[in-house]
Amino acid sequence: MDSESFPPLKASRNDETNEKLTCIGSTAFQCTVLPQHWRSNKSLPTPFKIMTGTTNIENGIKVSVAAGNEDYPSAELRNSTAIVKNGVAKFNDLRFIGRSGRGKMFNLTVTVFTLPPHILIYQKAIKITVDGPRDPRTKNS
Question: Does 32 map to a domain?
Answer without folding.
Answer: yes
